[in-house]
Automatic annotation (TrEMBL):
Record-listed substrate binding positions: H144, T145, K282, N291, R300
Protein name: 4-hydroxythreonine-4-phosphate dehydrogenase
Keywords: Cobalt, Cytoplasm, Magnesium, Metal-binding, NAD, NADP, Oxidoreductase, Pyridoxine biosynthesis, Zinc
GO molecular function, one term: 4-hydroxythreonine-4-phosphate dehydrogenase activity
Reaction equation(s) it catalyzes: 4-(phosphooxy)-L-threonine + NAD(+) = 3-amino-2-oxopropyl phosphate + CO2 + NADH
Cellular compartments per GO CC: cytoplasm
Gene that this sequence comes from: pdxA
Sites where the protein binds a divalent metal cation: H174, H219, H274
Organism of provenance: Reinekea thalattae
Manner of cofactor binding, per the entry note: Binds 1 divalent metal cation per subunit. Can use ions such as Zn(2+), Mg(2+) or Co(2+).
The family this protein is said to belong to: Belongs to the PdxA family.
Function: Catalyzes the NAD(P)-dependent oxidation of 4-(phosphooxy)-L-threonine (HTP) into 2-amino-3-oxo-4-(phosphooxy)butyric acid which spontaneously decarboxylates to form 3-amino-2-oxopropyl phosphate (AHAP).
């Protein structure tokens, strides 16, 4: 199965989009810059906003505007934050959403996509955005995952969150619960599983991945007594995947699947919907987890948390997830390069 990712060069810098300007995205970028990024990293943000937030946080970080031509020689220096500057539409009040700045949030993403597509950066790492305020600003937006899919012109992508010892991918992403059942089709499950299987091999070094698949209904439908989606849709899809050489186990009841007995022999769990899989992942790893979009032409990781408007500017934002997201992005680029070298020499 071909890997759709363009070859990532792990020697290139990472780029972060700082996300919702009123939230903790700017804080975690600055707090991490104060300690030093694990790799050469540039941040897309507004220069004045970052200077203002650094002073609110009371930290010594030199916020330095760079030109994209400087990305090739970017160095990694604790206490320095290299900014690709984007203008704001209105000044930011920390902790207060303002729909007038929705365009700014999207412009950051568009620049990151351009830099990743032309391979100026090895990967993009996204800070948290507020989906609601972007929509209030007149821009239809359900999440980075769907936005990146559409901007990259790919039919399907997969949201997968990972933390130490657990990876959880989703069949459906940002969808109202009432629409979930209809969105789960045999084709959809197969497309998602193929991407997941492929990326577990190419980006995570799993030789022969095993994917645990949840049911949709309580107790995986209890043989049709508690719903038919397992019998009508999930089981036939898993049978078809078996024919394609993709190893899955399921549908398993979601309430009993997340235990060592099952997880220790699996590479990922595939849940049917957002709040079936992510609460378990975030309970286990919030603060040290990463959100990854699989199936894009480039590597994208993200923090596991939201905009946390309640603590923006307070200095209480934990940088653990940003640090994890940066490290995952880099190691995925390394793994991808290794796989491509192996394929060239095969
Ligand atoms: N990556 C993303 O873009 C992303 C991810 C999740 C949620 N969101 C969005 O964020 C907004 C707010 O969502 P929410 O309130 O459900 O989740 P949230 O993660 O913003 O906040 C939940 C709680 O966790 C705390 N928290 C979050 N991150 C923290 C950190 N780094 N350090 C310390 N405490 C932290 C917050 O203070 C809050 O009490 C929503 O619009 C949601 O869609 C965006
Ligand atoms: N579903 C994500 C989570 O709960 O962490 C979050 O909403 C961000 O999703 P995007 O990366 O698609 O914006």
């Amino acid at each position: 199965m071909a890997n759709p990712c363009k070859p990532a060069n792990p020697d290139k810098p990472l780029v972060i989009t700082s996300g919702e300007p009123a939230g903790i995205g700017p804080d975690v970028c600055l707090l991490q810059a104060a300690q030093g990024f694990p790799r050469a990293t540039a941040v897309i943000a507004n220069l004045e906003l970052m200077q203002q937030r650094a002073s609110e946080l009371g930290i010594e970080v030199t916020v330095k505007k760079i030109d994209r031509s400087e990305l090739a020689n970017l160095s990694n220096q604790a206490g320095v934050l290299a900014i690709l500057d984007i203008p704001l539409d209105q000044p930011v009040i920390t902790g207060q959403l303002n729909k007038a700045n929705s365009r700014y949030v999207i412009q950051m993403l568009d620049l990151a996509i351009e830099l990743a597509n032309n391979q100026t950066v090895s990967a993009i790492v996204t800070g948290p955005v507020h989906k609601g305020v972007i929509n209030d600003g007149g821009l239809a937006f359900t999440g980075h995952t769907e936005y990146l899919r559409d901007q990259c012109g790919v039919e399907e992508v997969v949201m997968m969150l990972a933390t130490e010892g657990l990876r959880v991918a989703l069949v459906t992403t940002h969808l109202p619960l009432k629409d979930v059942s209809a969105a789960i089709t045999q084709d959809k499950i197969q497309r998602v599983c193929r991407i997941l299987h492929n990326d577990l091999i190419h980006q995570f070094g799993c030789e022969q991945p095993t994917i645990l698949v949840t049911g949709l209904n309580p107790h995986a439908g209890e043989d049709g007594h508690l719903g038919y989606e397992e019998i009508d849709t999930i089981i036939p899809a898993l049978k078809a995947l078996h024919q394609q050489g993709i190893r899955t186990q399921g549908p398993l009841p979601a309430d009993t699947l997340f235990q060592p007995h099952y997880l220790e022999n699996a590479d990922a769990v595939l849940a049917m919907y957002h709040d079936q899989g992510l609460p378990v992942l975030k309970y286990k790893g919030f603060g040290n987890a990463v959100n990854i979009t699989l199936g894009l032409p480039f590597i994208r990781t993200s923090v596991d948390h939201g905009t946390a408007l309640d603590i923006a500017g307070s200095g209480r934002a934990d940088t653990g997830s940003l640090y994890t997201a940066l490290n995952y992005a880099h190691s995925m680029a390394q793994q991808q390069q290794l796989k491509q070298q192996e394929q060239r020499h095969a």
